[in-house]
Every structure is written in structure tokens, then in C-alpha cells.
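Design job #97: recover the sequence.
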């Protein structure tokens, strides 16, 4: 048997470098090669999971993290990756269980891991849960500016703007170069119509600090209204140039197509209006004569039965799940479709309730009695 040229650690390091460069395909190829030689390397399985996540290959990512946890059930990075993947499938309780397991195992002193989990929860809209992990990081390192700023962002999303402002100011006292926190704070002041405070913060940023147009537009507006600068003032030029860099350039062909589309849309609207007027009486009669929606009965895998129209059944199934009432029907169907794909490999449409239920039945996830 030939002697491998690289150790499993070297394969992992090389894949990490490729991953950080955004070269996920080569990173995955490197990890696969490593696993061919070291099939029980937990780190390589975890690396595959994160590379798959970066490529939006969620079912494969979940499989890789689960394989890592079979080898080491207490691997913190595998638990974090599995939790993130479960969120993508709409399995929030299971994801939270994986994240909390990290705390139970005593990894609360891993600041970067706490921030990683917090950001994952934040992106998924679980703001209160995210704030918990950010606060754990601060308890370990009280002067960690990034963690403090993340608590400020969470406070804002939770509707606690006064607390958010104070928290972001604290982050900036620790790290005055934290431009993301400064721009966020400036926008918060602007939204509260505290324009002088907003201008104070905006003026302490540079054009290259901004990666969206909103802050620059607001800065230009405040400079003109509060500093009385006129259009064309030389001091505004660097901001206008940055704005031009961020604003997508419009192709003349795109403009022409947009104009054609606009005109076609106007004609279609006029024709639709005429048709509605012409057949209005017929539609009213049809609406009155329309019979009650057909009733159906569905049995879930756990034996629970749901009865009603297709839409009523899906809504009832959503309400029967933990925290379901906080999600729209569309979000519920999308989450269940992702879960169904992970379990069966069958793509389940979510465009309407009937298609969703019939495809779920075809995948063996439920039974339609009538």
C-alpha cells in the first residue's frame, strides 16, 4: 500500500486555505482525496460539511456533519455545522438542541464559535436566541467589540433601539475603527430623526467603508441640509464617486427592454380592465353559484388526521408543529419540503397547498384518504 504524501491535518489545512479563498470546489476535492486515505478523520468530514454548506448543498452537508458526529459525538464544530444545516431545513428545535449541546459540553469559552452560532441564529431570524450566544461571548471577553456590536444589532431587531444605541457606542469606544458598527449606529440615529448625531457618526466614516447606497445617500442629504453644502461642492465628490461605484450601471439595451416591458404591461392592464368590465356580471353570477370547496382528509406519519380544504389542512399541519403559528403557511411548506427532500430525495413543490400535499403523499410522508 503506498504511503500517503500528506497527513490528514495537512489535507485539512490545504482545504481550509482553499475555502477561505472562496474556492469551494477545489476545497471539496481536496477533502475527498483526504478522506480516501483517512476515512475516520473527523476534521475532514467537518470540512466537507462546511464546503457543502457554502455550495448550498444542504442535504449533503447534513450527511457530512452527521458522519463526523458518529465518529465524535462531542465535536463542537460538527454540532455547529449540523445546527446551521438543520435551520436550512426548517428544523429549528433540533437545531437549537445542537447549539445548546455545545454549551453543555463546555465550549462557551470559544469566542469565535459563540459568534458563529450567534450569527447563524441571527441570519435565520432567531434574534433572542442569537443575542444569548453573543452575550455568552461578552461574558468571556468583556471588551470584545465585535460581540458587543452584535448585541447592539440584536437589540435593534428586538425593538430596543435605545439599548442598541448605547451598546453600539460602547463597541466603538473599544474599537473606533469598527466601521460596520458606526454606520449601523448612524442609520439608527437617522431613523430616530436624530440627524445631528447621525451626521456626527457618518462623517467619521470613509467612502470605502460603505458597501450599500443607503448610508451614502443619507450622508449627502445631511451634508446639504445641515452643513448647507450646495450640489457640486468639491467635498461631496468622493462620496458621489463611491455612490456611482455601488450603483449598478444601466445598459442602454436594458433600458429599452424595460421601456418595452412597461408599455406592454400598460396595454395588458387596459385589456384586463376591459375584460373585467365586460364579464363582471358573469363573474358575479359564477361566484354566487360556486359550490363549497371540496373536503379532504389527510393522515400524517405520526397518525394525526387533518380534514378540510387543501389550504385548511396545510394551515392545521403548520399550527400543530412547535412554534408553527409564528410562521406563514408558505414558510411552513418550504421548511417541510426541505425536510422531505433530506429524508426521501423527492422534490416537493410549494406553489400551492394541493401540489404540496399530493407530492408529500407520493414521497410517503403522509396519506391522503380523500
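Job complete. Output follows.
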Amino acid at each position: 500500500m503506498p504511503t500517503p504524501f500528506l497527513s490528514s491535518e495537512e489535507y485539512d489545512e490545504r482545504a481550509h486555505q482553499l475555502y477561505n479563498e472562496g474556492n469551494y470546489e477545489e476545497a471539496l476535492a481536496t477533502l475527498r482525496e483526504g478522506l480516501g486515505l483517512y476515512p475516520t478523520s473527523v476534521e475532514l468530514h467537518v470540512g466537507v460539511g462546511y464546503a457543502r454548506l457554502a455550495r448550498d448543498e444542504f442535504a449533503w452537508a447534513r450527511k457530512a456533519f452527521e458522519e463526523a458526529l458518529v465518529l465524535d459525538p462531542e465535536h463542537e464544530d460538527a454540532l455547529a455545522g449540523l445546527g446551521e444545516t438543520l435551520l436550512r431545513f426548517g428544523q429549528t428545535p433540533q437545531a437549537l438542541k445542537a447549539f445548546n449541546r455545545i454549551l453543555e459540553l463546555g465550549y462557551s469559552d470559544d469566542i469565535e464559535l459563540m459568534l458563529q452560532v450567534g450569527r447563524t441564529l441571527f441570519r435565520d431570524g432567531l434574534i433572542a436566541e442569537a443575542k444569548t450566544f453573543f452575550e455568552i461571548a461578552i461574558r468571556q471577553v468583556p471588551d470584545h467589540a465585535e460581540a458587543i456590536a452584535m448585541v447592539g444589532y440584536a437589540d435593534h431587531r428586538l425593538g430596543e433601539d435605545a439599548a442598541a444605541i448605547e451598546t453600539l457606542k460602547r463597541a466603538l469606544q473599544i474599537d473606533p475603527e469598527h466601521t460596520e458598527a458606526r454606520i449601523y449606529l448612524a442609520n439608527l440615529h437617522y431613523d430616530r430623526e436624530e440627524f445631528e448625531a447621525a451626521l456626527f457618526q457618518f462623517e467619521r466614516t470613509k467612502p470605502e467603508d460603505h458597501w450599500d447606497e443607503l448610508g451614502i445617500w443619507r450622508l449627502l442629504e445631511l451634508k446639504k441640509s445641515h452643513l448647507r453644502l450646495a450640489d457640486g461642492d468639491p467635498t461631496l465628490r468622493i462620496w458621489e464617486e463611491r455612490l456611482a461605484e455601488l450603483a449598478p450601471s444601466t445598459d442602454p439595451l436594458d433600458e429599452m427592454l424595460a421601456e418595452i416591458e412597461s408599455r406592454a404591461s400598460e396595454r395588458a392592464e387596459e385589456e384586463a380592465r376591459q375584460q373585467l368590465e365586460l364579464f363582471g356580471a358573469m363573474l358575479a353570477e359564477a361566484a354566487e353559484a360556486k359550490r363549497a370547496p371540496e373536503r379532504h382528509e389527510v393522515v400524517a406519519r405520526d397518525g394525526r388526521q387533518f380534514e378540510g380544504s387543501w389550504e385548511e389542512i396545510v394551515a392545521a399541519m403548520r399550527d400543530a408543529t412547535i412554534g408553527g403559528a409564528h410562521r406563514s403557511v408558505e414558510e411552513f411548506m418550504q421548511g417541510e419540503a426541505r425536510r422531505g427532500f433530506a429524508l426521501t430525495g423527492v422534490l416537493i413543490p410549494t406553489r400551492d397547498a394541493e401540489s404540496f400535499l399530493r407530492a408529500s403523499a407520493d414521497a410517503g410522508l403522509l396519506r391522503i384518504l380523500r
